[in-house]
Amino acid sequence: MYEKTFPNKRFKHTLDFLQKHITTSETIFDLGVPNPFSKIMQENGYNVKNTSGEDLDNDQTALQIEKYSVFTAFEIFEHLLNPYTVLQNIKCDKLLISIPLRLWFSSAYKSKTDMWDRHYHEFEDWQLDWLLEKTGWKVISREKFTHPVKKIGFRPLLRFFTPRYYIVYAEKII
């Protein structure tokens, strides 16, 4: 079933994790413009609001004025220069964040055609946990998962065994 309705394993895993921790009665503020995964959340009964494309390193106004009970950021934090300030400005008590993990056998991602599509941070799991702790969040649940690619080679083989993504559910403690 999932293979026909999900573009990839990452979306299936992320939705399963979301459904384990968040009910559809809660309003989600999803960092980033509307995207394929925010559409999947809506198709699965979630009320989702997104940011409007503002530069989140400089402007967290939307985090302050929107009404929401859950904050999500799926593969967004690695693009930010300043995720610390974003985490400080969240106005709810629950969050879900997923990030691509730093891989020893692959350099940080940088698009050749889009100057905004690049990773400033590629975290290790402990770095995201520490960032959350420093900004007043307690990680309640965490998972790592792989994302194999259908290619032949040494790196695709390593991606089959090496966790590529890290997802956490955390609650505000301050």
Could you name the CATH class? Alpha Beta
Query: Which stretches are low in confidence, meaning pLDDT under 50 for 5 or more residues running?
Result: none
**Which second-level CATH architecture applies?**
3-Layer(aba) Sandwich
Q: So, the CATH homologous superfamily?
A: Vaccinia Virus protein VP39
- Tally of structural domains: 1
Q: Label the structural class.
A: alpha/beta
Strand line-up in the sheet with most strands: 2-1-3-4-6-5
Describe, in plain words, how this protein is organized in 3D.
With 174 residues, this protein is of the alpha/beta class. It has a single domain (2-172), classed as Rossmann fold. The chain has helices spanning 2-5, 9-21, 36-43, 61-65, 83-88, 125-134, 154-161, and strands at residues 27-30, 47-50, 70-74, 94-100, 137-145, 165-172. The protein has a six-stranded mixed β-sheet with strand order 2-1-3-4-6-5, with helices on both faces. The protein is globular. The protein starts with a helix and ends with a strand.
